[in-house]
Amino acid sequence: MSSEQKKCRWGILGTAGIARKNWHSIKNSGNGQLVAVASRSAERAQEYIDENQAQVAHDPAPRAIGGYDEMIAADDIDAVYIPLPTGIRKEWVIKAAKAGKHVISEKPCGATTADVEEIIAVCRENNVQFMDGVMFMHSDRMPALREVIDDGSSIGDLRRISTQFSFGAGEEFLSENIRMHSDLEPLGSLGDLGWYNIRFALWVMNFEMPKAVTGRLITTAGRPDSPDSVPIQFSGELIFESGPTASFYCSFDTELQQWAHVSGTKGNLYLDDFVVPYFGAEAGFTVSNMISNNNVTDFRMERHDRRVSVNEYANNHPTAQESKLFRAFGDLVLSGKTDNYWPDIALKTQKVLNTCLDSARNGGGEVAVG
Fold it and tell me: Model's pTM, two decimal places?
């Protein structure tokens, strides 16, 4: 894209750690320009800009804004990326939408399903695009996965989806991080990690909604100043009318894992990095078709695997999934059109997540999904 071509003009509303990654993503998108970063003080915003600009320089450098309202009102910003805590995010997404700003929101998109319904309604009323920041949805690996799942022979008829997303947070995280404060991140690990588990299962199912779910709060905790505890370890089960089931586990208290396993009547596929691809120049997965050969006393279990991959760098590159997220969003903004697919799947993810939590808080029994 030449410098003369129009670009999507971005503002980052907040100085969260994940926004550092997306500082680079906006630059790598090719169709975006980072105009400003807002924090509660201009000094903090400038410090954040200086730190990131020293490693990945935008030209011109984005300006610092003290206070979120000033960014919302800026007439040289088309879209905002909002990584603010879940507990306060809805207010700013709605303000941005009413000001005509398109929005990428970090996840979970809200504390409740009603929050997200309100957000989406306001975005539609103001003809602005809404999308959650799930990067893996934009990876080239996803079409390759879909081809294998749907080819009829690699997996056969779909039966089971299982995922785990976890990391061992450590004592400092558990006692100080905002994800351990119920006013800031009331959904804890379920919102921070389980969002990805649920999204992957729904994607595999072509966004068929489960007829019912169950949930289990395995452990909960809160930092010393938290009014309430939040989920630390959570497991859930999704039951679909069409037959398949999906289980997931998310945790701040188990070592880093991010695997997904899809099983059918003929085979299975496995990803050990479904959220963030491991460092390298490709993203892939393994397809397995086991064969049991028995001849009188000779029992042989044979493993027949094949690797499927796409050429896609894991991070900090124009081909990386986070760059594609911002590129795809920028294309929508520049087209002047909105795509209801993205807010629709965000709402479905939120609804399943909150219903799993309802189940967990009421003894773990099956709860119908809306």
Answer: 0.96
